[in-house]
């Protein structure tokens, strides 16, 4: 990989994460008048239509096995991940979810080790992981004891992080097929919407046009559909294609920073002392694990995409 291409990958990942870090806020605002499944389905329908308009040419899949990768990516990265995330936001703070989701790089590295056979895990990796889990526990305890919130939200956020790791591995595989990024993302969105259909009947899906067209709701929905979905999924998948699944996932560490700042400024959420310690431990654990992990494999795997 040439240096210019690598820099492009890093820029794509950073821009994507900055936008994604604010999506928890938009979703939290929409949850006041809409259900999680309503937000999810409408958001990705907008994104899917936008991607069709950008690149209307049909994607021709080479074989059925490749189709299964697209279906799996749609199920994990769209349907399951966002259902878990949106439901988690009904139980806990947006800042909590933002920090907990940042554990995804751990799961991504583990999945890459077992499924992509690319990584050798070092003891420091697990030390950092344990430190981060203690941080997550402190945040969860803060929500349950101080704010009287159900820790179920934090557990759902952890499950969402694991599902996102599976999505990252699948998109890494898909990037090897050398399809157009927009077309590939659109295909993933299609399967995500398809797998979402049963959830429309299980959960409350009764969108109210009047509520949706309120300026604040319309703005946040368009932001989620066009910016955070259509544009960002394409840029993220592009970054994964350039940098690889593990290296790109490191940028998820920035999510809690963006989320916490915006949740304080926009939602006026308050973070207790225990919450601050939890955030600090989570980020410290992630840094220790990734820093040592990268150093340990520096001479073994110079570049994931090579």
UniProtKB/TrEMBL annotation:
<feature type="transmembrane region" description="Helical">
    <location>
        <begin position="217"/>
        <end position="238"/>
    </location>
</feature>
<protein>
    <submittedName>
        <fullName>Amino-acid metabolite efflux pump</fullName>
    </submittedName>
</protein>
<feature type="domain" description="EamA">
    <location>
        <begin position="152"/>
        <end position="288"/>
    </location>
</feature>
<feature type="transmembrane region" description="Helical">
    <location>
        <begin position="68"/>
        <end position="91"/>
    </location>
</feature>
<feature type="transmembrane region" description="Helical">
    <location>
        <begin position="149"/>
        <end position="167"/>
    </location>
</feature>
<comment type="similarity">
    <text>Belongs to the EamA transporter family.</text>
</comment>
<feature type="transmembrane region" description="Helical">
    <location>
        <begin position="125"/>
        <end position="143"/>
    </location>
</feature>
<feature type="transmembrane region" description="Helical">
    <location>
        <begin position="37"/>
        <end position="56"/>
    </location>
</feature>
<feature type="transmembrane region" description="Helical">
    <location>
        <begin position="273"/>
        <end position="289"/>
    </location>
</feature>
<dbReference type="GO" id="GO:0005886">
    <property type="term" value="C:plasma membrane"/>
</dbReference>
<keyword id="KW-0472">Membrane</keyword>
<keyword id="KW-1003">Cell membrane</keyword>
<feature type="transmembrane region" description="Helical">
    <location>
        <begin position="188"/>
        <end position="205"/>
    </location>
</feature>
<keyword id="KW-1133">Transmembrane helix</keyword>
<feature type="transmembrane region" description="Helical">
    <location>
        <begin position="250"/>
        <end position="267"/>
    </location>
</feature>
<feature type="transmembrane region" description="Helical">
    <location>
        <begin position="12"/>
        <end position="31"/>
    </location>
</feature>
<dbReference type="InterPro" id="IPR000620">
    <property type="entry name" value="EamA_dom"/>
</dbReference>
<feature type="domain" description="EamA">
    <location>
        <begin position="8"/>
        <end position="140"/>
    </location>
</feature>
<dbReference type="InterPro" id="IPR037185">
    <property type="entry name" value="EmrE-like"/>
</dbReference>
<dbReference type="Pfam" id="PF00892">
    <property type="entry name" value="EamA"/>
</dbReference>
<keyword id="KW-0812">Transmembrane</keyword>
<feature type="transmembrane region" description="Helical">
    <location>
        <begin position="97"/>
        <end position="116"/>
    </location>
</feature>
<dbReference type="InterPro" id="IPR050638">
    <property type="entry name" value="AA-Vitamin_Transporters"/>
</dbReference>
């Amino acid at each position: 990989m040439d240096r210019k291409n690598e820099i492009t990958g890093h820029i794509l990942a950073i821009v994507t994460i900055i936008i994604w870090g604010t999506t928890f806020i938009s979703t939290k605002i929409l949850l006041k008048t809409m259900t999680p499944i309503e937000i999810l389905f409408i958001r990705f329908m907008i994104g899917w239509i936008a991607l069709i308009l950008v690149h209307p040419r049909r994607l021709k899949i080479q074989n059925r096995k490749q189709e299964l990768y697209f279906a799996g990516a749609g199920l994990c990265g769209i349907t399951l991940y966002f259902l878990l995330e949106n439901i988690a936001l009904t139980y806990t703070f947006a800042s909590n979810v933002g920090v907990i989701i940042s554990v995804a790089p751990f799961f991504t590295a583990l999945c890459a080790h077992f499924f992509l056979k690319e990584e050798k895990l070092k003891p420091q990796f697990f030390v950092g992981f344990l430190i981060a889990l203690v941080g997550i526990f402190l945040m969860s305890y803060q929500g349950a004891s101080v704010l009287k919130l159900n820790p179920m939200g934090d557990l759902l956020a952890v499950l969402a992080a694991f599902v996102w790791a599976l999505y990252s591995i699948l998109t890494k595989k898909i990037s090897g097929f050398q399809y157009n990024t927009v077309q590939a993302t659109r295909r993933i969105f299609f399967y995500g919407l398809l797998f979402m259909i049963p959830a429309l009947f299980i959960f409350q899906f009764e969108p109210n046009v009047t509520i949706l067209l309120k300026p604040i709701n319309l703005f946040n929905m368009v932001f989620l559909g066009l910016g955070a979905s259509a544009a960002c999924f394409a840029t993220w998948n592009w970054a994964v294609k350039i940098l690889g699944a593990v290296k790109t996932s490191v940028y998820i560490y920035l999510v809690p920073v963006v989320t916490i700042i915006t949740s304080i400024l926009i939602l006026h959420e308050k973070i207790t002392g225990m919450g601050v310690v939890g955030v600090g431990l989570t980020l410290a654990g992630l840094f220790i694990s990734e820093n040592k992990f990268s150093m340990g494999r520096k001479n073994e795997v110079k570049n994931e995409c090579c």
